[in-house]
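Support case: user asked for a sample of complex input and structure output to validate their parser. Sending the pair below.
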Amino acid sequence: MAPESDRTAGPLYRRVAEDLRQAITSGRYGPAGQLPTEAELARHYDVSRGTLRQALAILRTDGLVTSRRGTRRVVLGTARVQSFSEMLSFTQWARSIGQEPGGLLHSLVRRPADSIECEQLRLESGAEVYAAVRLRTLAGTPVMVEHTSYPARVGSLVAELPFDAVSHSDKLRQHGIYFADAQHVIDVVPADARDAKLLSCRRGSSLLRERRRTTDSNGIPVEWSQDHYLPGTVAFSVHNSHASSSLSRHARRSR
Amino acid sequence: MAPESDRTAGPLYRRVAEDLRQAITSGRYGPAGQLPTEAELARHYDVSRGTLRQALAILRTDGLVTSRRGTRRVVLGTARVQSFSEMLSFTQWARSIGQEPGGLLHSLVRRPADSIECEQLRLESGAEVYAAVRLRTLAGTPVMVEHTSYPARVGSLVAELPFDAVSHSDKLRQHGIYFADAQHVIDVVPADARDAKLLSCRRGSSLLRERRRTTDSNGIPVEWSQDHYLPGTVAFSVHNSHASSSLSRHARRSR
DNA sequence: CAGTGGTCTAGACCACCAT
DNA sequence: TGGTGGTCTAGACCACTGG
């Protein structure tokens, strides 16, 4: 294939996708320009059309290009989607945006799982979890309180970490705990007493909440987390298209 | 192919995907069970492995099954992802969850676009937009205030609609305006005076905000909307995996 | 080691768009 | 009507998992 796309390792279609992403975000085809034909691109990269289409599918999902039968692909924008890993790890995310992450472990206890944890972590009632509460900071400023529950198998590893450890997901990966899938639910919730104390906000004031259940590659839950962000500190962004959507909106019970 | 999957129209891989989705959510393989081999499934449906893999890719994106080299696919859960159309249209969404949607047009004006609208709708400075403010209700209860701006081309159609029209996207589709891509940003924002009045909440209280830019199949913006939800009424849900992610988290400017 | 999903190829035909 | 992306096929080889 063309020399400019040999830079990184991994499957061919990913290298092609990265090269195309670079070309698009650098403006080679203009802000709303047309891409060359699939046949032309395949010839250029010296790959089959199937492989090229795998590459384009990535850019399609990221919202970088359109795709429509009968017409050439059009540049949609310069979306900068984060990797799965960056989305899960506060530490990796912070560093990827050039900010210095900080963490303060407020508490870490081992106790029987409550009913919500049993359901989310698929545990038998009575099983034990490790429940951690951490304050997260960006450049020293409090941003988020993280309530995370781990099943015993995972939690025992977390418990061995030093109190001032910044990244936990790194450590877990070293012990063979891989995160593969996550389901996120985003809404608004009032601050409880602990949130208020750690974040220096009024009790009952609104926080942006992200609830997240992460599973490994076998579908076994490895983490259940409720992250409470101070308003105005972060926003969540999702791309969506006729071709693929993993986003939905839920009605919550009226109280 | 097998008779049970001839029900719907459309491409073969979609019909296979829907049949498999049905099989999985009905529990045929168990809550965390293994799927048959790709080869077996392809034989069962009498399709090529490539087509079968297209079907499985859909279920993968929806978070229904895992996929990992060397092992069979495992049932992850029974995620119920909404269609793109349901995600965009309040009316379609409400009906899909069995609730009766209502709408009250608060104002609809034609005026020059402000700087944010120019950027979001890719308009020349000075171009005109139609700006609508609508109160949305579920079963008669106020849920959300929608601030939507349309470029003139689209807005002139919206302006022709009766004041009590519930669904606008239906009408636009009839006039050849198709929604193809959307970018969503979700965060928390204080209620302004108008929000407070329409939603009967205190001014300055927190609302869940969804900002959305929708484009047609040529990448041309057709809608820019800021939806302000009362806390506790809705939540947004996204699935995410090592294989594909269209989700990211942004830091907002500190004020 | 055998089984399984991941990657890649080469070619065919079709549906849709613009002209 | 010609160009383009969407769909589908048949086959090959590889990387990884698990016994």
